[in-house]
């Protein structure tokens, strides 16, 4: 999702944009448990006069922190079942609607994720994704196969990565918490270190609407470890959310006062 | 997605709405090959002053047919790869944006699909889905598991089903053209006769924004047959699209002049 093209008028506009300090960021988070520490940390207030259509469960918090306007959105509770609206469809929709309403300069998709011991990951590691792709959209027809995988580079932030000492790794997204053998093969093909349920969907929408996006994922479970994913995820969710919260705070502090090209 | 609740003010409004003749329908289709015969049949014109944001590939055709305003949307070609933007995320986004912009009375999601010989299906059969669900969103945590499956009834149209002599069956949706053993188990658990890549996503968005939706699916491939799905799909796409086109025309003719409660 790095802006591309050189010499054109569009490229000049993009360059100018990249030189202005970032003024508004949109944090997209899938679960309330993940969202609330960040809401509290930045003292964001819930938007009671919603920018979203009547009836949708999507929730927006917003506020000013240093020189940044911060919007945080999460897709809210499923109105019938009462659980967090996780997964790619809800994440896509709330990202789309939030970009339309709020026109952010930069999107941060933050959340918990699974990772792999064969890739050297441990619980509570925080990764900044270099690339995102899907692992559960198999369409074995030429070119459609590439569309299904939907591999994208995230916005390049070499200074952020170095300064905050985050781990870098590729992220793979699918709508299941577990992993079938077919999905495992796709994750290996994606060379992914981190596995989540929203990242590539947020990236797709951000790319569609030409907003740079970065992905911060904290590890709640080791997919190729001993424990069942669901059990390990629930056990570690609260503790790992604290690590995520700390990383997002550091990232926001780093972003403050900088322009896109300085990240 | 049938309106529910009795005696409340909201229910009264819904009842009044159901008694007004349907004036606008939104046809959501995933592929250009599936869309164009219907565009031509109803002499719809492409919307050149798009209701969608700049840069998105989504395409809208519209026109008047008898007493109905018809909008047809498809998610367009992927701007990088040039293939149709199939699957749940694109379908969700274009359905959401089209409902917001066009406020239709009824959504028709039409398309080709796979089906099963164990369920008695043949190539070119046209099904009206009674229920929709997902088969590739496994979240093995209580209640989240139900959210993942996302089972919904489509809007009930008993008269339409009887009059047009369509087959009824449950529809299961996933982002892969093929089917892993885990997905097969989920499709069996969903008791599905028809398998597509968009229906449950369209249903989710329609439910979120409270628009009744129906699902017309024509069979291009027998999933439990001899031939590989991708090969059979490509072989039959054009011919089955003709059957789909005919069924959609019959459905639109049936809808014309009726209110929702008469369907």
UniProtKB/TrEMBL annotation, chains A, B:
Pfam families for this protein: PNP_UDP_1 (PF01048)
Residues annotated as domain Nucleoside phosphorylase: 25-252
GO MF, any single term: methylthioadenosine nucleosidase activity
GO terms, biological process: L-methionine salvage from methylthioadenosine; nucleoside metabolic process
InterPro entries membership: MTAN, Nucleoside_phosphorylase_d, Nucleoside_phosphorylase_sf
Superkingdom assignment: Eukaryota
Name by which UniProt lists this protein: 5'-methylthioadenosine/S-adenosylhomocysteine nucleosidase 1-like isoform X1
Gene for this chain: LOC105141382
